[in-house]
């Protein structure tokens, strides 16, 4: 028997229809607010820009707005799926790493206008990878900004023996914690009264899809992770924690020990570092449990302030917008969950068996800010910490690795550049990456002079330097990822390695590789670029500002 009273919606629409519903207004608003690159050097409001480390989501959003990276939408109807349509339109116009954060101040949900704000895409823009860590973006150069952030994090890893530093958190009293300002218990709790939304008409219903779910286990230790949670009644959630997640393992162990329930707390509206660690594979768990709250402090360079949950011993971020406390009903039958739009950009199937949480207490700040993840439509979190860590870890396997990147809008594809010094190194490097990183299904290896952040250069290398035979390797069975819509066996995948480095004669390549046109210009007329910039650079930039 189900432990909850399911509430579902019967909205049906196609992506084309709700894109059309976004209409000219959505695009016009984006064009007006974001038609030019933001000026990160000064606050638009005249007020001081909040600086990192950001204790709260509110401080961070204020910093985005001051830098022109936030688009406010006063009123929007989600019953027509207009926030979703607008998110698609933003990404199609500005790309995954160039779109603004959006703040929906009032939003219609299930026929009712609700006061927000609802926040979206808050770590999508490449500039946020720098801003989160207190670094200044490079004006007009998002790739340089991203590399500035990666360099900062690489230095942090190098200074700490290959791991991110740990600074233990500081516990606040309940009276000091902003997340405890307002308390709801018993029948006062109704999750439907908050603007948690149904993102896609094909989703199972309304979701809390950005919560950091805190759990604990005697052996696994404390943990938190972002597990989407389907709201199935005013006080129940079905939490999609996969069997390989620490949360699922903790609750399953409690079930096997014969316990009736397992304590759980969910933080909503986290500061940007806690949010990133909650969803990114940065805090890698070895034999010993990882203190992720201490890692958040280390990445912040300042202790995270935490507070004890009211109804259990779980420690949660004190400056979160909202805390849901309750229990996992570990002895109740596992329930179906979903479908839900997944990160690959496809609708994921219904999950057959997930745990249910009963919510016993809610505390929150006044007018709590609700973060919604538009999964598969946005860059979910700042990725520089993860890629800096990958660069270091993978360099042990590929000593001549220059840089690794897997773009968030091309899930399953990975690019790496190497300093090639011998034949065969391209395929070998790609094989090692494919075997080490489950999500990397198409691994493209290029020479060191090419920029793995530049899609044009990656496609250029594949078109001009790659011969499918013999510079390819198909791996029939390798570690995969559960959300891959093309997979026929869970957690397994076939993979392809594409060696798009210049093929040496020993690899079947030409005896002499032709010179690049651009290098031919740079080598034979080295003054041409500087002269063109001096005489015509401003003219070219002015055209870009006025185009469209």
Describe the structure.
It is built from 13 helices and 25 strands. Helices cover 29% and strands 23% of the residues. Strands 6, 7, 8, 9, 10, 11, 12, 15, 16 and 19 form a 10-stranded antiparallel β-sheet that branches. Strands 1, 2, 3, 4 and 20 form a 5-stranded mixed β-sheet that branches. A 5-stranded mixed β-sheet has the order 21-22-23-25-24, with helices on both faces. It has 548 residues and is of the alpha+beta class. The chain folds into 4 domains: 15-141, no CATH class; 158-371, Pnp Oxidase, Chain A, CATH 2.30.110; 398-514, UbiD C-terminal domain-like; 519-548, no CATH class. Mean pLDDT is 88; it is low at 1-44. It is globular, with a radius of gyration of 24 Å.
What does the secondary structure layout of this molecule look like, with pairings?
Elements: H1 15-34, H2 57-66, E1 70-73, E2 76-77, H3 82-94, E3 101-109, E4 112-120, H4 126-131, H5 142-159, E5 170-171, E6 182-185, E7 207-208, E8 212-215, E9 223-226, E10 229-233, E11 236-239, H6 246-256, E12 262-268, H7 272-279, H8 292-300, E13 305-308, E14 315-317, E15 322-328, E16 335-337, E17 340-341, E18 347-348, E19 351-364, E20 370-371, H9 384-397, E21 401-405, E22 413-418, H10 425-436, E23 442-447, H11 455-465, E24 472-479, E25 492-499, H12 517-524, H13 528-546
Parallel strand pairs: 1-3, 2-3, 4-20, 5-13, 22-23, 23-25
Antiparallel strand pairs: 3-4, 6-19, 7-10, 8-9, 8-12, 10-11, 11-19, 12-15, 13-14, 15-19, 16-19, 17-18, 21-22, 24-25
């Amino acid at each position: 028997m189900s432990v909850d009273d399911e509430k579902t919606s019967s909205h049906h629409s196609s992506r084309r229809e709700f894109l059309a519903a976004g209409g000219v207004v959505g695009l016009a608003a984006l064009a007006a607010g974001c038609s030019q690159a933001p000026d990160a050097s000064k606050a638009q409001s005249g007020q001081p820009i909040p600086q990192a480390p950001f204790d709260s989501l509110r401080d961070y959003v204020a910093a985005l707005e001051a830098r022109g990276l936030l688009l406010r939408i006063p009123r929007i109807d989600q019953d027509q799926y207009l926030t979703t349509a607008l998110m698609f339109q933003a990404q199609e116009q500005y790309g995954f790493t160039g779109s603004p954060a959006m703040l929906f101040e009032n939003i219609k949900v299930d026929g009712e206008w609700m006061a927000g704000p609802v926040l979206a895409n808050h770590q999508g823009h490449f500039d946020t990878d720098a801003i989160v860590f207190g670094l200044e973006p490079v004006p007009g150069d998002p790739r340089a900004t991203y590399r500035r952030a990666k360099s900062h994090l690489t230095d942090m890893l190098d200074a700490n023996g290959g791991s991110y530093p740990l600074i233990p958190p500081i516990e606040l009293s309940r009276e000091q914690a902003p997340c405890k300002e307002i308390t709801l218990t018993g029948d006062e709790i109704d999750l439907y009264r908050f603007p948690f939304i149904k993102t896609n008409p094909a989703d199972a219903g309304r979701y809390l899809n950005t919560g950091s779910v805190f759990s604990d286990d005697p052996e696994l230790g404390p943990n938190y992770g972002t597990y989407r949670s389907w709201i199935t009644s005013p006080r129940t959630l079905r939490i999609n924690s996969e069997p390989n997640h620490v949360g699922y393992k903790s609750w399953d162990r409690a079930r096997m020990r014969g316990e009736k329930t397992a304590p759980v707390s969910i933080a909503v509206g986290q500061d940007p570092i806690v949010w990133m660690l909650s969803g990114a594979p940065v805090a890698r768990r070895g034999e010993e449990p990882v203190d992720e709250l201490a890692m958040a402090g280390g990445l912040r360079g300042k202790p995270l302030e935490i507070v004890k949950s009211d109804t259990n011993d779980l420690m949660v971020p004190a400056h979160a917008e909202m805390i849901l406390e309750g229990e996992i009903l570990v002895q109740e039958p596992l329930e179906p969950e979903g479908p839900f739009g997944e990160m690959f950009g496809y609708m994921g199937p219904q999950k057959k068996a997930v745990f249910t949480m009963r919510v016993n207490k809610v505390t929150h700040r006044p007018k709590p800010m609700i973060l919604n993840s538009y999964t598969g439509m946005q860059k979910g979190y700042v990725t520089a910490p993860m890629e800096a860590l990958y660069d270091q870890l993978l360099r042990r396997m590929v000593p001549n690795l220059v840089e690794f990147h897997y773009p968030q809008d091309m899930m399953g594809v990975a690019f790496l550049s190497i300093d090639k010094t011998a034949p065969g190194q391209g395929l070998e490097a790609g094989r090692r990456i494919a075997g080490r990183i489950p999500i990397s299904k198409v691994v493209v290896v290029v020479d060191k002079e090419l920029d793995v952040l530049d899609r044009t250069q990656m496609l250029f290398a594949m078109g001009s330097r790659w011969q499918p035979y013999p510079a390819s390797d198909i791996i029939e069975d390798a570690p995969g990822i559960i959300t891959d819509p093309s997979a026929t066996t869970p957690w397994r995948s076939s993979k392809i390695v594409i060696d798009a480095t210049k093929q040496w004669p020993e690899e079947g390549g030409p005896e002499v590789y032709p010179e690049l046109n651009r290098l031919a210009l740079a080598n034979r007329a080295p003054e041409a670029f500087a002269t063109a910039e001096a005489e015509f650079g401003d003219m070219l930039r002015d055209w870009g500002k006025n185009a469209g």
